[in-house]
Amino acid sequence: MSFDKLIAKVTQAENALEAHERRVGADLRQLKQSWKATWTPARIVIAGVVGGFLVGRAEPLRSAARGGSLMRIVSLLTGVFASGTASHAAEEAEHAADDAETAVAAAATGAAVATPDTAAAVAAANEHVAHERLLRAAAAARRTHAGAID
User: Fold this and answer.
1) What's the CA gap between 89 and 136, in Å, rounded?
2) Which residues have CB under 8 Å from 104's CB, separation 6+?
3) For residue range 99-128, what is the model confidence (pLDDT) as tens digits?
């Protein structure tokens, strides 16, 4: 076989491979489209119920209780709820600090005469509010960290 015939044969094989790749891509797009079309909400709910039933039949709690992992699951869930409560408390503290800052700023702008003493007092009040805010955030973070460790 000559070299030109070998090149022609390789080119033909490459063309056949590219045509096959295009057919496979088209088939996959069609499969994806029909797969999405068949999953109606009712079918999704039925699949969830059947899947839940099958998982429930596997009796995972009995095997988890034997391995002691049930206590780990309970402690994990406790930590998750504790961190959620701590983050909520931190958000409330942040809102309270923002309200206090707003009140201090309103009192500063409402002053009749702006003197260096009142400006220093406003700056000190703002610094105090910021310091209190940082302390509350640090305390909330410590509670979250302590709750996650327990």
Assistant:
1) 9
2) 122, 125, 126, 129
3) 777 776 766 666 544 556 666 777 778 888
Task: Summarize pLDDT for 34-83 with one digit per residue, the tens.
Answer: 988 888 888 888 888 888 888 777 766 666 556 666 667 777 777 766 66
Structure tokens at 59: 């009796």
Q: 């039925």: which residue's tokens? A: 46
Euclidean distance between CA atoms 145 and 34, whole angstroms: 48
Cα gap 149→87, rounded to integer Å: 16
Helix or strand holding residue 7 (H, E): helix 3-38
Q: Which of 85, 86, 93 is nearest to 134 (CA)?
A: 93
Core vs surface per residue 61-81: b (16+ CB within 10 A) or e = eeeeeeeeeeeeeeeeeebee
Contact 104, 129 (CB under 8 A): yes
Q: Determine if residue 66 is left, alpha or beta; phi over 0 gives left, psi from -120 to 50 gives alpha, anything else beta.
A: alpha
- What does the chain come to in residues? 150
